[in-house]
């Protein structure tokens, strides 16, 4: 039971690390949290014309995506509302600089790197 508690505490701490990386606006710091073969799903991928299904795989593709997206958000700032954790994943519930609430599902591998992410925005 102690190992599971430690894992859940690490997942909660990871949410703070993830938020801090984004708030730094340092793309290398953000990408360091992701596995080389990670997959990301977001409606923003579609809006930027990178994939009609909103799905990208691989850190190089994530670099292109976020390299295009970050300049569009010069005042980007996330505030953690809560983190929901499980043994292999977490959902980061946060507010952006525009006051929008977003949930980001992040599945992690055994090395603590993100292998799958899904940005979930309120539709409308």
TrEMBL record:
<dbReference type="Pfam" id="PF12680">
    <property type="entry name" value="SnoaL_2"/>
</dbReference>
<protein>
    <submittedName>
        <fullName>Nuclear transport factor 2 family protein</fullName>
    </submittedName>
</protein>
<dbReference type="InterPro" id="IPR037401">
    <property type="entry name" value="SnoaL-like"/>
</dbReference>
<dbReference type="InterPro" id="IPR032710">
    <property type="entry name" value="NTF2-like_dom_sf"/>
</dbReference>
<feature type="domain" description="SnoaL-like">
    <location>
        <begin position="17"/>
        <end position="97"/>
    </location>
</feature>
């Amino acid at each position: 039971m102690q190992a599971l508690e430690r894992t859940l505490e690490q997942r909660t701490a990871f949410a703070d690390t993830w938020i801090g990386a984004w708030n730094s606006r340092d793309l290398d710091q953000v990408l360091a949290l992701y596995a080389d073969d990670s997959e990301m799903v977001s409606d923003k991928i579609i809006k930027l014309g990178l994939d009609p299904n909103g799905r990208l795989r691989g850190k190089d593709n994530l670099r292109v995506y976020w390299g295009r997206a970050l300049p569009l958000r010069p005042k980007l700032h996330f505030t953690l509302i809560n983190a929901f954790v499980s043994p292999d994943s977490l959902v980061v519930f946060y507010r952006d600089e525009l006051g929008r609430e977003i949930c980001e599902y992040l599945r992690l591998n055994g090395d603590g790197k993100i292998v799958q992410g899904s940005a979930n925005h309120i539709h409308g």
